[in-house]
Amino acid sequence: MRRDYPCLTAYSLLWIFTAGCAGLARQDKSPDQIAAEKALVGKKTALLERENQVLRDENLELTRGSEMMKAELEKKQAEFSANDTRRAAELKAAEASIANLTQKIAILESESGGKIKQLTQLNEQLAERHAKEREKLQEDLKRAQVEGAADKERLTREAAERQFAHGKEVQELKQRAVEKEKEIDEMRRALAALRENEARLQKEIQGLKAPTAPALK
Description:
- By secondary structure, the chain is an all-alpha fold.
- The chain has one domain: Helix Hairpins.
- Helix 1 packs parallel to helix 3 and helix 2 runs antiparallel to helix 3.
- The longest helix has 94 residues.
- The N terminus and C terminus are likely disordered.
């Protein structure tokens, strides 16, 4: 959420500095007036510094949010990879079981010629059952891969969109921070000029208050 902060422009600072210098040139302002102006400039400078700190905090929060989103995407990718590995292992185990049963049937057929027909039927049944199971596992694996790819693409796209939006906002915050820094520098220069003018005026006042030398008779 973007926030707009009130601030003094360079033209305002120039006006303050010009007004102060003009006032000293005319000697229209009292030390109290100059002190009040200096206090006002100091307060506005402190306010700009606090606003600049808020911008830095917001920038840090956006950076943390982007890092958390990246970690979540990596976690999802790891989960998808683990699911693919598990389903591939299940399919491989089913194929190994079919191969093992086929081998056992072949051994039994060689040992008992009278049970060939029965074992052949059993083999066909087992092969049909395992073929269905393998087909189901393959379909589940394919569906999981398709869903995983879709989810991965969606998460990647959303992360990229959010990262782009955050990057743009971060750049805006950085630019605003640079502008705030410039305004603070201008305020500091104006404050220094006011202090210098105040010191010069104090010296002039002290010179006016000094007792004059007695006249010669």
